[in-house]
Queue: 3 jobs
Job 1
Amino acid sequence: MGAAANAQPIFDAHMHYSHDAWDVVPVQDVLAILKKAGVRRALISSSGDDGQQRLFQAAPDVIIPELRPYRSRSDVGTWFRDESVIPYLQERLSKFRYAGIGEFHLYGENADLPVPRRMVELARKHGLFLHAHSDIDAVERLFRQWPQARILWAHAGFERPEKVAEMLKKHRNLWADLAFRTDHGSGGKVDPAWRATFMAFPDRFMVGTDTYTPERWHYVGEHAAWSRQWLSDLPKDVAERIAWKNGEQVFGSLLRPE
Ligand SMILES: [Zn+2]
């Protein structure tokens, strides 16, 4: 395998630059890590938006920000019943530009609680993607609230590839990231059931590192190299789409100046 600069570019669709990473991995270090790994663009959602905005300011051609409904890590398990999340989202949406709202954790009937419903209304008003770390039930409820929603399904719901294929078939506006799972490829080979799903829906998958703790930033290069290995077991055009073209096509133009 050649140097990252000559290798398959990567669009990393699942990154976080949350408050506890800002001092440990400063902005310039993040950008150096991405460059060395051959990550040409990254979709980033962060608990705490200020550091994420600094990152975006430093490299608007590389960083695509999403607005997370979490001010800090502790919001993960409580945000969907926390009314104060909505004014926070409104305040941020009035000041900054985003490609989506998420990644948020939301399961089952919680998706129909008032706070998630208002979040979906804000996404609709601003024309934003939803990046959902959700089970099938919650994804279905989000689509019922907003049938035209565009949803990036984090970790492909940690579902089996057959189930993922069913969902992709049912919902044309559903994409899936493969972050934080390894069952689809190992030792440079793609799992047969996953291969069938990738071949059936080559336009709907993206890779992602999921830098959910600061230390994970030091894993970005290794993850990019590992992704290139299993992707090389797919036909070249499918591998290119999953590696970067899908992310570029779906998110790449969202933040260009109007
Ligand atoms: Zn995540």
Job 2
Amino acid sequence: MASTPVDDTPQGEPLVYVYEAPVRLWHWVNATAITLLFVTGYLIGSPPPSLNGEPSAHYLFGWIRFIHFSCGQIMAVGIIFRFYWSFVGNYFSREIIRPPVLSRKFWKGVMLETKSYALAEHSSRRYVGHNPLAILSMHVLFVWVAVFMVVTGLALYGEGEGPGWIHTVFTGPVLLLFGNNSLTVHTWHHFGMWAMVIFVLVHIYAAVREDILSREAIITSMISGWRKARKVTPID
Ligand code: HEM
Ligand code: HEM
């Protein structure tokens, strides 16, 4: 494992610096942006009743769309940055972005963790970062879905904006992929929201549960970066 423990708990267990500051900053900026994207995206799909008065005066839907597009762009830049960091950051920064899918040991770990979650087998394995099953689920259910939301979101944005580079790079190819039907892109972007909502609910439940049951710093590790390392199993 590339990362070296550099501190100890009072009980003499090594502490490992798991999540570097850029990953932590990205996590919380991304989580805030996605929460605002849920609220504003839901309102775009199920708009509130019209208000009295001149729309340009209260600008209600204008603000909803403005917040959605701003957070969407923050999320898009964040994803690009997070990919970049998986190349220059520590061992743990690669885990969910570029999992070791060619390693047999990784897939064995995925199977063993799946059995353990299904209560079919007891797992005594310890991982400092994410376990192989968590890596695989975050890779598919978060990374792929996030990229899908950014690509379809930018395609819809380029459609509203008109000719320009966003239209050329995203709107044209995405519309082609969805049978030249903008409504289908809206619908899939909408489905993506519910996939992401399910991910976030399960993710927060798992983080809180693991924090209590593993008696290790799980939630605070995404704040301070440090985690206690007992005897550890490498993932690949
Ligand atoms: C987790 C991230 C996101 C969620 C949950 C989300 C959710 C939604 C939802 C539910 C809609 C309404 C779709 C409909 O029923 O017609 C929508 C529309 C839209 N979203 Fe997103 N979105 C996300 C990311 C993005 C990103 C990254 C962008 C890119 C800038 C974006 C741009 C748009 C645009 C342009 C529309 C259409 C607005 C309109 O027609 O007025 N979204 N979004
Ligand atoms: C929209 C909301 C959220 C999203 C999309 C999200 C997404 C993610 C992702 C993608 C990771 C992996 C980070 C990496 O390895 O690069 C992660 C890790 C983590 N998140 Fe979140 N998160 C959200 C909210 C939260 C909240 C509210 C909490 C606290 C209760 C939380 C606690 C954590 C913790 C503790 C980890 C590290 C887990 C571990 O090492 O097993 N997250 N999150």
Job 3
Amino acid sequence: MKMNNRPLGFAFAFTLLTTATLAGVNNLSDTAIAPVETKPPNSDYKPAFTGQTRISGVKTTSAYEGKLLTSDLKSPWGIAMLPDGRFLITEKRGMMRIATPEGQVSAEITGLPEVNPAGQGGLLGLAIDPAFAQNRMVYWVFSEKTPDGNNTAVAKGKLSADEKTIEGATVIYRATPAYKGNLHYGGRIVIDKTGNLFVSTGERSDKQTRPQAQQLNSALGKVLRITKDGKPANGNPFAGDPNARPEIYSYGHRNVQGLTLNPATGDLWEHEFGPRGGDELNRIQPGKNYGWATITYGIEYSGDKVGDAIQQKDGLEQPVYYWDPVVSPSGMTFYTGSNMPEWKNNLFISCLSSQHVDRLIIANNKVVGEERLLGNLGQRFRDITQGKDGALYTITDQGRLYRIGK
Ligand SMILES: [Ca+2]
């Protein structure tokens, strides 16, 4: 987008803020400020609608702090809360650990299948079984070495009573075809209300595999929905289509490292790494095509255009929001806690390259305000979740765990 589009976007968004009455949007009209992004965009591409990028900024009015709890993690990748309020955390090289909300970190939990930690691979996202208190089951995503290269895989296992090992670890799903490369594995996993698993993949980055994001006979560049045994979930959109993989839920994705359910609506939200200037936030609907690599707001990192340099096309979904320059989103959660009432229903995204936690105010499935938190710490934020105390907990590539709240 051109610079001269910004004042219009700001005025429109400000009107939205002053008239919005949804929970989480009240009382923010006085705090709407200039968009948080001040760097020039990478292209002059125009958004599909006002407010799709560079929305007006907002600022949290009540006091909060980002408290460092520990620096003793080793490249943590995923964080999920156990029923007792402690956190199970994956570490990229293939271990899990438990951290208390005070920052005490356990020894390594072993027994997981070997991961291929090269490049962007390793032990990735995780999900705790809703009945964990009874069955102690955990589900996770990892990059797996195979004779043909490697692939994103999903496994499950039981956390032993002494919390030292994962017992009976079983690989339940492989996002094939395998490929010799170590980028764009996706890697998040979410359990839906029917007990099935949403799993995100990537298109493995190279131009050779990129077209598979649009191909329904490949698991690359997809959001998948599988059972806890790795089978296609009932009710998936392409069930019965002989030319499609029945586990596919949505397609046309680049590298999906954020998946979460919106507790207010039940919708699945996703974010993905775009090319230069094209990171996206999407609301995922079954069977829809999210466009990569046919449409994108980004350009190649070389500076070349992507494909035919198209941003909008009939039949392809528009992102709810995009970032140009990129923020490198990896991990997100909707806030439902009472620790920070003004954050209720806001979406929090951990960002790597831009080194902050992004706070987005959502109304009617659109972004109406953006704030950057903890931008002064120099941390690559990798994942974020909510704790039992209603504060947010975020892990960083540098091995840190922070609590964000009052
Ligand atoms: Ca897209």
